[in-house]
Design goal:
This protein has about 450 residues and is an alpha/beta fold. Helices cover about 25% and strands about 30% of the residues. The protein contains eleven helices and 23 strands. The protein has a nine-stranded mixed β-sheet with strand order 8-7-9-10-6-11-12-13-14, with helices on both faces. A seven-stranded mixed β-sheet has the order 17-18-16-15-19-22-23. A three-stranded antiparallel β-sheet has the order 2-1-3, with no helix packed on it.
């Protein structure tokens, strides 16, 4: 056995044989830290040739099927692809204080209600602190086992002894392996702990949830290989001031990565938001210039949200542009299209665009809503409160078609909206019982005339 020194980036996990001032992976400065790695010479296998695994045809492999545990938390089960898969390793990331531990304790409470056994391992909190939070959330059941220890060997022994259905590790940065001299949270420790937890989950057929802290860029701290090693990566995000939280799956080997779960943070814990559209539109101002309703596809469902724009005369030589909840560069691009194709001069105006409710929208179908909101605020003329705007805008000013138009129209009609502005490029089929008027437009000039 011998030791060698390598350098890892603390932000993204980029590995280098020498120290560098700037990381080639994430382009951050002074993020490289020295790590010692013990290298041992692997011994050749002494197994007989007949004992080695052989390649087989895919048609000869017997399908074992997926054994799932249902938490009865509809939003969480939706994001996981229909429940927790036994033997899976799930990484839950999010900003500090966003509610990761609260969500997992709520999950533990729901699981024990279905006669499942849960082990909660924390390297950050004492047993009394975990119990205090569990009592507040109602997670007070003898089937919830607690362990406060950062040593992975002790945690592994507890897992094998208790044989739980689900294990929660809070957090991966506080766990360590005694064989390594590196401090807990280092790249080497995080990588080794995750690898051993993965082997443990597969061997015992136990689902393991690990909590991961995020960097200032919003990615899970540690090596990028951490996300490749696990079966599912969930991000818990949201604006702390708004009270809404969104759970997104960015990787899922057992389900779709397009689903999201919406929660509301209350004094007694997280509550599911069954109708996100109604919640996000609550408190919307009446007949306010610059306020429009758009439809965004979040996973397999359409969500209506309020988009606000404020255009005012600028007092600076260079006008200010601000976008909250939207891509800043996309907003600037649409403003340029509005100036060129819509004949609106915005060069001397400050422009602020915001998605109410503290959520983020990346759907191209919001383009036409952004254009209409900016135009409404610029002209100081409100868009009808009963109107929903859907469509992607091209650089030529054309309105392009978007996916799932029928689902978006149904959601708008369900909430009582009387008019939906749609791209003419895609026609909506016959919808039984539809009360909303469908207005088709082909370019932004037609859309601006219609509103």
């Amino acid at each position: 056995m011998k030791e060698k020194k390598v350098y890892f980036c603390k932000e993204c996990g980029y590995e280098s044989a020498k120290w560098m001032g700037q990381c080639p992976g994430c382009r951050q400065w002074n993020t490289f830290a020295e790590e010692k790695i013990t290298v041992s010479k692997k011994k050749s296998s002494s197994a007989l040739p007949g004992e080695k695994p052989e390649a087989v045809s895919i048609t000869e492999v017997k399908s074992a099927g997926e054994s799932r545990l249902f938490t009865n938390i509809g939003e969480l089960d939706r994001v996981l692809g229909g429940g927790i898969v036994r033997g899976s390793l799930v990484l839950v990331g999010g900003d500090p204080g966003i509610g990761k531990s609260t969500l997992l304790l709520e999950m533990c409470k729901a699981l024990v209600a279905e006669d499942a056994k849960v082990l909660y391992v924390s390297g950050e909190e004492s047993l009394s602190q975990i119990k205090m939070r569990g009592v507040r959330l109602g997670a007070y059941d003898e089937k919830i086992l607690l362990l406060s220890d950062g040593d992975l060997e002790n945690a592994g022994q507890a897992i094998e002894k208790t044989n739980p259905d689900v294990v929660v590790i809070d957090s991966i940065q506080t766990m360590f392996v005694n064989e390594l001299d590196n401090v807990p949270g280092s790249v080497t420790q995080v990588r080794e702990v995750t690898a051993r937890l993965m082997q443990l989950a597969k061997r015992l057929d136990t689902a393991i949830f690990i909590v991961g802290h995020v960097t200032k860029e919003g990615t899970v701290a540690g090596p990028r290989t951490l996300e490749h090693m696990v079966d599912c990566v969930l991000y818990f995000e949201g604006d702390e001031s708004s009270g809404f939280r969104m759970l997104r799956a960015v990787k899922n080997r057992f389900g779709s990565t397009n689903e999201i779960g919406v929660f509301s943070m209350t004094e007694t814990g997280l509550k599911e938001v069954a109708d996100p559209s109604q919640t996000f539109l609550s408190g919307r101002p009446v007949e306010a210039p610059g306020s429009v309703v758009i439809s965004s596809m979040e996973g397999s469902r359409a969500v209506l949200v309020e988009l606000q724009a404020l255009v005012s005369d600028s007092g600076f030589s260079m006008p200010r542009r601000t976008a909250v909840g939207l891509d800043y560069n996309r907003v600037n691009l649409l403003m340029a299209v509005l100036e060129k194709r819509g004949g609106v001069s915005l060069s001397g105006c400050d422009c602020y665009v915001n998605i109410a409710g503290g959520i983020r929208v990346n759907d191209p179908a919001a383009d036409l809503g952004i254009v209409c909101a900016i135009y409404s605020s610029f002209r100081n003329r409100p868009v009808g409160d009963d109107t929903v705007i859907i469509g992607e805008v091209g650089l030529a000013g054309e309105i392009r078609g978007v996916q799932n138009l029928e689902m978006r129209v149904k959601e708008a009609d369900k909430l009582g909206y009387k008019r939906v502005i749609l791209p003419k490029a895609v026609k909506v089929g016959s919808i039984p019982g539809l009360n909303a008027e469908l207005v088709y437009v082909s370019n932004i000039r037609e859309a601006l005339d219609r509103i």
